[in-house]
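User: I'm writing a tutorial on reading structure tokens. Could you give me a worked example: one chain, its sequence, then its tokens, then a sentence or two explaining what the tokens reveal?
Assistant: Sure. Here is the example chain.
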Amino acid sequence: MTPADLSRTVLHTVRCAVEADELRATVPARVSVRVPPRPGCGDYATNVALQLAKESGRPAREIAELLRGRLAGRPGIARVEIAGPGFLNITLDTASRGDIVRELLATEPAGEPLPLQPPAALLARLGSDAARWSLTCPPGLDRDLLLVQRETNPLFRVRYAHARSRALLRNAGDLGFAPEAGDVPDESAAALLGALADHVRISATRAPERLARHLERVADAFLRWQADRPTLPRGDEKPSVVHRARLALAEATGKVLADGLHQLGITAPAHL
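And here are its predicted structure tokens:
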């Protein structure tokens, strides 16, 4: 289940509740789902209950409880929890996470790079890649930081994460196994899957700053997940279905990072 699928599922749930006269409100045109800002709060969250509370005259948590009961049994959803004043935190089942990876691997790369034109002085000072990235950075950032090959450099982290994903694929090939999209049981993968699932939507905005921050989020989530879960077998361990699914997630990450960098007109080296 992709974010778009989940949004439609939540919207359908609201519509069913209204048609059953369990909820008296106008069905919204669309429902927004977002990755929660903190880990441990599900794969996605929606504030639809808060949106409906004002018109219906009922407490948002009461509406959230109504929708939670209807959503909990839907295919692709593992559990639904209520947080704060009425947010719905939704955790997908592992098969739905595999669907996100399959869809990303089947998605065609983006088209032409965005028209970022750094001034000649900046090109001479930083080089093409860093100069282009600098145009997406917030004001006040020391541009010389982009020349330093360390974690404090966001461009380095993004390119390093891409190179790391390519290295995992090469190493897996040396071990005689290939990626295969499937269930990813790791709870620590939720933030990465959520970030990856946002790629198509964010790419469509054609907004360089937004795309760059998205790539940072993907890279950071990938590197945290990698530190928590081994993608490759260790010692005498044989490659399993889980290893292949993790490798497919790494491959999807590399594809998203390469695509985003391409849109910014920046190279995505396989070795770094």
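What the tokens reveal: Strands lie at 44-46, 77-83, 87-92. The mean pLDDT is 90.
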